[in-house]
Amino acid sequence: MLKVDNIHIAYGGIKALRGVSLNVQQGEIVTIIGANGAGKSTLLNTISGFLKPSRGTVSFRGKALPKRPDLIVRDGICHVPEGRMVFANLSVEDNLLMGAFLRKNRKAVAEELEQVYQIFPRLAERAQQSAGTLSGGEQQMLAMGRALMTDGDLVLMDEPSLGLAPLLVNTVFEIIGKIHDLGKTILLVEQNAFKALAVADRAYVLEQGKIVKEGPACDIAADPAVKAAYLGAESRAGG
Amino acid sequence: MAQFLQQIVNGLSIGSVYALMAVGYSLVYSIMNFSNFAHGGVIMFGAYFGFFAMTLLKLPFLAAFALSFTGTALLALLIERIAYKPLRERRAPFLYFIISAMGASIFLENIVIATIGPTFRTYPKVFSRTAIALGSIAVGRLDLIMFFVSAISLALLVLFIEKTKMGKAIQASAYNMKAAALMGVNTDQIVMIVFILGGILAGIAGVFFGMKYTVYPQIGNITTKSFVAAVFGGLGSLPGAVLGSVLLGIIETMVAGYLSSQFRDLIAFVILIAVLVFRPSGIMGKISEEKA
Ligand SMILES: Nc1ncnc2c1ncn2[C@@H]1O[C@H](COP(=O)(O)OP(=O)(O)OP(=O)(O)O)[C@@H](O)[C@H]1O
Ligand SMILES: [Mg+2]
């Protein structure tokens, strides 16, 4: 479904991605794990069209992606960005409706909204509240709900569990499962390698802008080097 | 008491036109995070467009008015495309935008001086100069019309921004451009719409200022006051811009009425400095979002 082929990205002199290739098949959950600064967000921002690779290509359903981020959304890729980025000046419901910005069918949008409220009952309770007043966990729910409203088939998620209490981290991963059950394909970037590998089908390990390992999630989880570098740190990082 | 009421009415009228300008400023600021100093030049063109539409083309007032704000909408859009879009694409630092805006402003003023000349011109008479008596106070017809047209324009703008999908997209982009793009919003289009809206308001304001005072190449300098009003109310906040403008208008007429008109502008700048010192975010501004 998604094919990233040998992309290079540099910020000025800093090389953030150095020949990254990966693919995601329809219906999969694929995770990319890597430490701070490995280039995970850079990779997702490139897929979403915010960064232009100096070399390499990204294709979606066999076609090169359009140039503008809004056209990429139209093609069916949605992105839950790092740091949530909810519209704090709008109500919760308006945030969700912004997700449906490109959609014309009002009935389908209303149904989707109901579905999102079912997955995230907290958002339904706070529908008219300004999004800026939500807690961090609720904002993460809103960011995910808003992305679902775009009706994209491929969902990119950038560290959805970041900064959340352990109980909420579990909720977030449960929700990722629910989103997958809706028929969405998921590319999940995480530092919480333990949880990410548990939910994913396949995994890539990104280190300093390069993919150093790839394979079925269970194999990666069993890899001694990965265990030492990412899973050992799990208890310290605390999610 | 009658004099006091009279000053309030005059202040409301002039304040409502400041509000047209300040809202244009604030709209662009809220999306682009820089002060569009070329806005004054657009207002000046609005004044000239209306003036020449009436004198040269001999158009009736309403047609000249419409021609003027259509022209300024296009002009504002053109400035965005030429002076700002290339900077946006390169993600240039905000200082470049300010310098580009100043360049555009100087260019607009000088092209008028070079072609039309620096002379002051007076609009043909449109509304009778006899005032309308409202109880103990007298209201000029032009003042009344200025107030109502400005109020209606601003109400329409608020309706557009609060009630339409595109309006919500403008609000979303003002908060976070990247997140808006992730919702499928074409943010380049949002920037264009914002400049068009600001341009329309600038044209309306330009015609009114031309009619109330005279038309001359530096008439755009009056936007310094709307800038004061926008900062006073809180840059980037539309209700703040309106409130700041109306307050500034009333304060000015009060100062002119009770002290001396020579102190009028002095007070405006004392207010600006005081606001910047004691409440940098203005009356209704967002503090944490302040970027430039
Ligand atoms: N806008 C930028 N300008 C310059 N350098 C950048 C920029 N964004 C990222 N970088 C650099 O690129 C590298 C990769 O950053 P990126 O944000 O992709 O990492 P990440 O894997 O998402 O890290 P984290 O887990 O901390 O979010 C880092 O060295 C970072 O400092
Ligand atoms: Mg990141």
Write the layout of secondary structure elements.
The complex is a heterodimer of chains A (239) and B (292).
Chain A: E1 2-11, E2 14-24, E3 29-33, H1 40-47, E4 55-60, E5 63-64, H2 69-75, E6 77-80, H3 92-99, H4 106-119, H5 121-125, H6 136-149, E7 154-158, H7 166-181, E8 185-190, H8 193-199, E9 202-207, E10 210-216, H9 217-222, H10 224-231, H11 234-237
Parallel strand pairs in A: 3-8, 3-9, 6-7, 7-8
Antiparallel strand pairs in A: 1-2, 1-4, 4-5, 9-10
Chain B: H1 2-32, H2 39-55, H3 61-89, H4 94-115, E1 132-134, E2 137-139, H5 141-163, H6 165-175, H7 177-182, H8 187-212, H9 223-233, H10 238-259, H11 264-278
Helix pairs in contact in B: 1-5, 1-8, 1-9, 1-10, 2-3, 2-4, 2-8, 3-4, 3-8, 5-6, 5-8, 6-8, 9-10, 9-11, 10-11
Outline:
Chain A is an alpha/beta fold and 239 residues long. Chain A has helices at residues 40-47, 69-75, 92-99, 106-119, 121-125, 136-149, 166-181, 193-199, 217-222, 224-231, 234-237, and strands spanning 2-11, 14-24, 29-33, 55-60, 63-64, 77-80, 154-158, 185-190, 202-207, 210-216.
Spell out the key features of this protein:
heterodimer; A: 239 residues; alpha/beta; Rossmann fold; 6-stranded mixed β-sheet; 4-stranded antiparallel β-sheet; 10 strands; disordered C terminus; B: 292 residues; mainly alpha; two-stranded antiparallel ribbon; 11 helices; 73% helix; 2% strand; globular; binds adenosine-5'-triphosphate; binds magnesium ion
Overall pLDDT of chain B: 90
Distance between the termini of chain A: 30 Å
Number of helices of chain A: 11
Q: Cofactors and ligands present?
A: adenosine-5'-triphosphate, magnesium ion
- Tell me how many strands of chain A there are: 10
Q: What is the average per-residue confidence, as pLDDT of chain A, rounded to a whole number?
A: 93
Summing up helix and strand content along with how strands pair, one would put the structural category of chain B as mainly alpha
Helix content of chain B: over 70%
Strand order of the largest sheet of chain A: 6-7-8-3-9-10
Low-confidence stretches of chain B: 287-292
Proportion of beta-strand residues of chain A: 25-35%
Rg of chain A is 17 Å
Name given to the CATH homologous superfamily of chain A: P-loop containing nucleotide triphosphate hydrolases
